């Protein structure tokens, strides 16, 4: 049998602060059925979630500005999260 080559994913190791804590994300992953979760997987998921949150917020803010409003609402987030 030939061994599978595993691809390594390099996580951005900048000294940036995450807005999400690892523990709740790890709990969430375990609730979804992952019995063992590596720190790298948790960090990568946090990075992906934060990037999506930034994109959605920026898109929602553009709608708010276009409508000359100041308050960002839940409806704006719903609109921005549709693709």
Features:
83 residues, mainly alpha, Histone, subunit A, 0% strand
CATH topology: Histone, subunit A
CATH architecture: Orthogonal Bundle
**Low-confidence parts:** none
Task: Supply the number of structural domains.
Answer: 1
Instruction: Write down the overall geometry.
Output: elongated
Structural class: mainly alpha
Radius of gyration over alpha carbons?
18 Å
Please indicate the percent range of residues in DSSP E strands (runs of 2 or more): under 5%
Main sheet characteristics: none
- First CA to last CA: what distance? 43 Å
Helix content: 55-70%
Number of helices: 3
The CATH homologous superfamily is called: Histone, subunit A
CATH class: Mainly Alpha
Mean of residue pLDDT values: 86
Topology:
Blueprint: H1 22-31, H2 39-66, H3 74-81
Helix pairs in contact: 1-2, 2-3
Explain what this protein looks like in three dimensions.
The protein is mostly helical. It has helices at residues 22-31, 39-66, 74-81. Helices cover 55% and strands 0% of the residues. Helix 1 (22-31) packs across helix 2 (39-66) and helix 2 (39-66) crosses helix 3. The longest helix has 28 residues, at 39-66.
């Amino acid at each position: 049998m030939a061994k599978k080559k595993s691809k390594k994913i390099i996580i951005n190791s900048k000294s940036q602060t995450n807005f999400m804590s690892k523990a709740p994300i790890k709990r969430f992953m375990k609730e979804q059925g992952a019995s063992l979760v590596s720190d790298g997987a948790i960090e990568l998921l946090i990075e992906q979630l934060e990037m999506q949150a930034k994109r959605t917020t920026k898109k929602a803010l553009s709608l708010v500005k276009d409508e000359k409003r100041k308050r960002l609402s839940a409806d704006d987030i719903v609109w921005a999260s549709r693709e």
